[in-house]
Amino acid sequence: MGNLSWGFILLVFSAFFLNLDAFELRKGQKTERISGSAGDVLEDDPVGRLKVFVYELPSKYNKKILQKDPRCLNHMFAAEIYMHRFLLSSPVRTLNPEEADWFYTPVYTTCDLTPNGLPLPFKSPRMMRSAIQLISSNWPYWNRTEGADHFFIVPHDFGACFHYQEEKAIERGILPLLQRATLVQTFGQRNHVCLKEGSITVPPYAPPQKMQSHLIPPSIPRSIFVYFRGLFYDVGNDPEGGYYARGARAAVWENFKDNPLFDISTEHPTTYYEDMQRAVFCLCPLGWAPWSPRLVEAVIFGCIPVIIADDIVLPFADAIPWEDIGVYVDEKDVPNLDTILTSIPTEVILRKQRLLANPSMKQAMLFPHPAQPGDAFHQILNGLARKLPHDKTVYLRKGEKVLNWTAGPLADLKPW
Amino acid sequence: MKLQALQQSYANRGRSNSLRGQSPLDSGMDGGGAVKSPAGIFWLILHCLCCLISLVLGFRFSRLVFYLLFSTSSINNLYTSTTTSFGSATDIAESLSFTTSLRRLSPPVVNTTSAVTSRVVVGRHGIRIRPWPHPDPVEVMKAHKIIEAVQREQKVQYGIKSPRTLIAITPTYVRTFQALHLTGLMHTLMNLPYEVVWIVVEAGGATNETAALLEKSKLQIKHIGFEKKMPIFWEARHKMESQMRLRALRVVREEKLDGIVMFADDSNMHSLELFDEIQNVEWIGAVSIGIIAHSSRSDEEDPFEVHQTMDEEDETKSPLPVQGPACNSSDRLIGWHTFNSVIYKGKKANYIGDMAIVLPRKLEWSGFVMNSRLVWEEAEFRPDWIKDLDMVLAGDGDDDIESPLSLVKDASMVEPLGRCGKKVMLWWLRAEARADSKFPSRWIIDPPLDMTVPAKRTPWPDAPPELPSDTQKVSGSTTQENTEKRATKTRTPKSRRSSRGKRKHESRNADARVSARHSGERIKL
């Protein structure tokens, strides 16, 4: 009798596990689970793992700026605005600052646009400084830790260095007041002044509806080998080449302009998104800054990104294993790009495509509104949650001061 | 796109600021207001002078001066060499200007240890070009293999999961346009990634002509002869084609072929997407056919007359040249689009080769596809709303059914394919030559034509002007021959232009007397 019941239990168990395996296999045929160095964390839910308190700043720091120029909602730096809106209505928000793990300051520093639509960063340091002065005088939480449990979204070209030109940005360095805060930025380059230890890199904003509306059926065969549309020489600012993209884009053009495998040009076709879906590899070289929305587009459209930017830190680098998904090419190896790409074994290419087809991967790159589970907003919160609990050294003793409020160029110290 | 423009004009703005600012003499002023002080004017003049010198020399002179004046001996380990393909002078200047900029940058960085500083340097780099910047054929081949592998994987992932055999039924008969139509259909079927069984039913019995044509394909073909000749009138031809298709269905029934039956008329044009779409059929499905009602220009009637009547009578309902299923907004089959042949009353072709519009029937066979199990004998394979094939035929008596709809008891069970008929993947066209038109058997010209046109340099002994008069006589005689021999199908060499008497051709037909007459005249040698 005992044997019979054991046998029955064993049978049930085996059936259960076999079924489970079959299910996983079927799922695994099309896509693969993505696990980065932090583990299998793309699908984690941050709700319940952290609490964020949103400071109530006067509207001159956010709403009025947006009202002055609503173009800020569509450019690639719009993540700061959408993050604010997401946090205001998210379940991780708490109205009680005593129980908050992280503090968010909604200041839109990249919304001062030229007539052409490009952000000018000259007033951003002053704006940020003024906001920090406000929160440090009206709430005690800044002084408690000197900003170590605060996070800021700085999606501009070189993050919190607040300049579009690399040399100037390096000269300025990160704003001194933000030395202890966590920065959420699009810029990422290893061993660079403007990337602080413990920053969270995020993808630039790309309009999700626009991309979804250009999807074509996945059964359409991919017939383009390498695809790229964009500038190779920035004729206005760097006519001889060599400065723009550290010469990498120009090298791509000079070496491969007559190669039939490389569909590269400076045109602006209306079928740009559809063409990406018909390509196997999409080049994502650096420009004036190492990051670009091309990475987001390549991931959404299932085209393997070929990243040509030395030492770049890609979005959510601890959650997404970019080496398994994309192809890294050193800038010095650009003349051999065709050899590099054709020598990748077929199984590796198919695996990369399977990883790209994973819907959680695509979700993680987007900033949809309203927010959806697994999207970039949630990945940012996951990243913040992974930094918890705060180290004891974060909390300063009474009277201890670390930040230098008068550091930085003189022009930045003027009130905003 | 927009983003590129943004970046471009943005960098424009940025760089123009910076280019002004990068000259070491002006580093202080970043777009500030111009100060008209003596010092300012002095710096301005110096700056202009340096610019002029740079223009003459060809490189950034000011940086070189700065470096030579202010450099110290320590060049820190941030200096990395760049390989360039430029000339040596610019080389030196660049690498020098590069270290100059580094020097200016070093103050903020020098506090940290050298391990933290980036190996990526800011400044000007060279554009690396390999010695032979052109495609390598080996790489191209490898890339094509990769693309093929990717496409195969795509097909496996997103294409049809378990493709069924395609059973294509084609009625045909030997005529001038047979080779044209059948070659097209044959190549379409050869290009499919599916298994194909091609049942070709030939009116007038299975001939070697058709067999030779079919042999060229590597398909599995069942060539069946139908012992009646194809009639000349279109009505009768349509009827006979239906009978031939039924004959083929009987073969499917007897041999128990398993797969999807489609009716591929030899003169139709199929798109490859059609074959992917019909794999979705469960029992019986309908697709939309584009009707290309071919209207040839005729002398008797004004070709525009048709259009005028159309405008007057049917402004609201233009003839939709598509035959197929019609659906309502929830994608359910509610009816059929048929070809509106009312407007063509009296103007349609009656016999093959008639110079008028050839119209399709109400619903063409080729718009229907069905599971081959529908025609099997055993009733357990098919659903209740399908009639048995034998019973349908017995009931009609004359072995003819208009369209496969007669096989179903309930026409609403037909599945509309191709996005509910919105996608046209197949076109119906009936272009035929006259029934008595001649063509060489198997389109092989044997014996070779005797028409010889002299090459420009070949020295013919006879004078060229004789050639035109000669042809006149020849063509005149051959038209007479043609009228005599209209009934025969075999090819008769029309004209025999004499080969200048150099060769005497043995004529193999009744034209011998005519040709002998000519060759008799021409033999001079």
TrEMBL record, chain A:
UniProt key word Mitochondrion: no
Pfam families linked to this entry: Exostosin_GT47
Annotated GO biological process: glucuronoxylan biosynthetic process; plant-type secondary cell wall biogenesis
GO cellular component: Golgi membrane
UniProt keyword annotation of Aminoacyl-tRNA synthetase present: no
GO-annotated molecular function: 1,4-beta-D-xylan synthase activity; glucuronoxylan glucuronosyltransferase activity
Stretch forming the signal peptide: 1-22
Membrane topology: Single-pass type II membrane protein
Sequence ranges assigned to domain Exostosin GT47 in this UniProt record: 49-344
UniProt keyword annotations, A-Z: Glycosyltransferase, Golgi apparatus, Signal, Signal-anchor, Transferase, Transmembrane
Compartment list: Golgi apparatus membrane
PANTHER family the record matches: BETA-1,4-XYLOSYLTRANSFERASE IRX10L-RELATED, EXOSTOSIN HEPARAN SULFATE GLYCOSYLTRANSFERASE -RELATED
Family named by the database record: Belongs to the glycosyltransferase 47 family.
Record's protein name: Exostosin GT47 domain-containing protein
Classification of source organism: Eukaryota, Viridiplantae, Streptophyta, Embryophyta, Tracheophyta
From TrEMBL, chain B:
Record-level Gene Ontology MF annotations: galactosylgalactosylxylosylprotein 3-beta-glucuronosyltransferase activity; xylosyltransferase activity
Family matches, as InterPro entries: Glyco_trans_43, Nucleotide-diphossugar_trans
Chain intervals for the UniProt region annotation (Disordered): 298-324, 455-525
TM spans (from-to): 40-59
Entry membrane topology: Single-pass type II membrane protein
Keyword set, alphabetical order: Cell wall biogenesis/degradation, Glycoprotein, Glycosyltransferase, Golgi apparatus, Membrane, Signal-anchor, Transferase, Transmembrane, Transmembrane helix
Compartments where found: Golgi apparatus membrane
UniProt key word Transmembrane helix: yes
Domain of life: Eukaryota
GO BP of this protein: cell wall organization; glucuronoxylan biosynthetic process; plant-type secondary cell wall biogenesis
Main localization of the protein described in the UniProt heading: Golgi
Basic residues bias (residue ranges): 488-506
GO cellular component, one term: Golgi membrane
UniProt keyword annotation of Glycosyltransferase present: yes
Biased composition (Polar residues): 469-481
Entry EC no(s): 2.4.-.-
Stored PANTHER family: BETA-1,4-XYLOSYLTRANSFERASE IRX14H-RELATED, GALACTOSYLGALACTOSYLXYLOSYLPROTEIN 3-BETA-GLUCURONOSYLTRANSFERASE BETA-1,3-GLUCURONYLTRANSFERASE
Summary of the function given for this chain in its UniProt record: Involved in the synthesis of glucuronoxylan hemicellulose in secondary cell walls.
Family to which this protein belongs: Belongs to the glycosyltransferase 43 family.
Protein name: Glycosyltransferases
Species: Deinandra increscens subsp. villosa
